[in-house]
Amino acid sequence: MARSLLEVERLGIEFNTRRGTLVAVDGISFEIEEGEVFGVVGESGAGKSLTGQAIIGLLEPPGRISSGRIYLNGKRIDQLPYEELRRIRGKKIGMIFQDPLTSLNPLYTIGKQLIETILTHLPLSHKEARQRALKLLTEVGIPAPDKRIDHYPHQFSGGMRQRVVIALALCADPSLVIADEPTTALDVSIQAQIIALLKRLCEEKGTAVMLITHDMGVIAEICDRVAVMYAGRLVEIGPVAQVVKFPQHPYSQGLMGSIPSLRRRVRRLTQIDGAMPRLNEIPPGCAFHPRCKHSFDRCHKERPKLVETSTTKVACWLYGN
Amino acid sequence: MIALIIRRLFQSFVVMLAVALVAFSLFRYVGDPVSQMVGQETSIADRERLREELGLNDPIIVQFSRFVLNSLQGKFGISFRLGRPVKELIAERLPATLELSLVAALFSLAVGIPMGVYTGLYPHRYLSKFFQAISLIGISLPTFLIGILLILIFGVILGWLPTFGRGEVVKLGWWSTGLLTVSGWKAIIMPAFTLGMFQLTLIMRLVRSEMMEVLRADFIKFARARGLSNRAINFGHALKNTLVPVITITGLQLGSIIAFAIITETVFQWPGMGLLFLQSIQFADIPVMSTYLILIAFFFVLINMIVDILYHIVDPRLRAEGAVV
Ligand SMILES: Nc1ncnc2c1ncn2[C@@H]1O[C@H](COP(=O)(O)OP(=O)(O)O)[C@@H](O)[C@H]1O
Ligand SMILES: [Mg+2]
Question: Which residues of A touch B (CB under 8 A)?
Fold first, then answer.
């Protein structure tokens, strides 16, 4: 069987704190195929960012991978020494963070930051690296790149800076880009442009995207498949058309209910009563049962596994055994 | 940049004028200049003539202008105590103080920054904890105590280093330097260490906390996510971002080092301006005191200006005003 670009198997992430061990991500599994746009949704605190950080090996202590495996192109990467993993970062897996205003070093020109990154990963001369940087800036839609390349981050607007960040993430042609809420910090009017840019570039280059967001509108628009996370667990995963139009899990149904059909992008996920439990008080059984309209006895006691339905895979006792 | 320098020059000018006014008042109103110059037996008429000659009967504004003009030409008057022009006395003493201050400052930077970087990068290592402990000592022990302890250990008990003076000096024009002879270097070690110790701990703690703060910044996380090497991240990206506060503090501290050299110079009998100043106070030697005041203020102003210019070199956000496109 051909292996996927990225395989995450039963990934667990824990924090050792003074009050004991907190389980932030609890045995989640998924694959991302070459060139695919894979969405990860869920309320804030669901463990989406931690999952992304774990994949590129940048979990910050006290956070740590407590179980599971991560494969890139069939090669296990979660136990690599720091130096080897560093060579994968930026080269094989690019990363885009939420806030473009703070992602760039204020003391260096964007050209220097691009060239530095390119030279770290590719065997080019300084001049060739500069050429490549200019080409990237053109691709991400920075006007007059030959002039702008020598400007400092503070001379760019937020949207323009996020374009520079995208150029930086893509500058060594990675096969996967992890974009952690890439538009949350931007003006609503610019969000759509940035998302469209990301989608177009990755399509052209054949780069797969792991798009972390809590904006269902964005998911519906550009993703191929979606995973829904709740309290560190995967509750549903499947093709975007199915998950958005025919969500199976009551939590997914709640999320989808939060997209107004006309003006999709504007709203956030708030329509489900109650709040996600904190890590130290995740209930037994299905973590969602206190907020679930359909919950019954079994939901309080036993934890549901992901099972295949006709459309998606879902972890809920309403489906199957 | 040019506009900045002009603005700063103007501000410096105002500050210096204010200091000159203080120095002038000291000169003019602390005691009677005439009675300090002449003996008991001088007659009233002679005194009056001297007043006239010295211009002490002119309007204050004229006197002050003359004071400023004279100061600009280096005419600071005659020391009451030594009967020699203050200019000469200062020229003799200035090199000793500046060399001591400079060596102390360089020492504190050269040792403080690496210690700060190390403790900032590896806060949990034993060596870091050791550095932290040392810095506590450096901050809490008074300078004179450190100096006296050093003298006791290395000067008296071990006999490795001289306990006072500058050692042999070499003349370079009017400048006398102790940095070209072995005995000069031996003599400067303990005073420079004593004087620089406080700044060293200050710089170390500053670099440490700035470093820890910068390492948490998003742009450092992004730099890691791009796969840059640790060296590029720690020294290229993080350290450079700690420079602005370090330059500020170092600049301000260099001023204080020169001013606080008084204590160190006394402990080590270092023939610098501080020692001269202290002796002048005991004799109410006003011309020397007011000149010292002006000179120290001048150094502060000069250093401040250099610090400001360095900021603009380090931080592009200050260079281009506005200009968000
Ligand atoms: N250093 C930490 N110590 C304890 N808990 C943490 C720490 N960092 C993150 N968490 C917890 O991990 C959970 C998941 O965080 P995150 O992955 O950032 O969520 P999101 O889905 O919003 O991106 C959150 O509940 C958060 O409180
Ligand atoms: Mg997040």
Answer: 56, 58, 86-91, 94-95, 97, 99, 102-109, 116-117, 120-121, 152, 154-157, 160, 165, 168-169
In whole angstroms, give the CA distance from residue A43 to residue A268.
Answer: 9
**pLDDT exceeds 90 at position B44:** no
Residue with tokens 């001023």: B255
Give, for A20, the enclosing helix (H) or strand (E): strand A20-32
B93 and B174, same domain (yes or no): yes
The model's pTM is: 0.82
d(CA B291, CA B273): 10
If asked whether residues B120 and B192 sit together in one domain, one would say yes
Instruction: With beta carbons less than 8 A apart as the criterion, state whether B120 and B211 touch.
Output: yes
Place of tokens 């009056």: B48
ipTM of the complex, rounded to two decimals:
0.89
> The domain that contains B137 carries what CATH number?
1.10.3720.10
Range of the domain at B27: 1-81+283-325
d(CA A85, CA B225): 10
**Same structural domain, B296 and B238:** no
Helix (H, G, I), strand (E, B) or coil at A233: strand
B139 and B34 within one domain:
no
Is the pLDDT confidence value at B321 over 70?
A: no
* pLDDT tens digits, B294-317: 988 898 888 888 888 888 888 888
Question: How many domains are there within chain B?
Answer: 2
Rounded CA separation B244/B312 (Å): 9
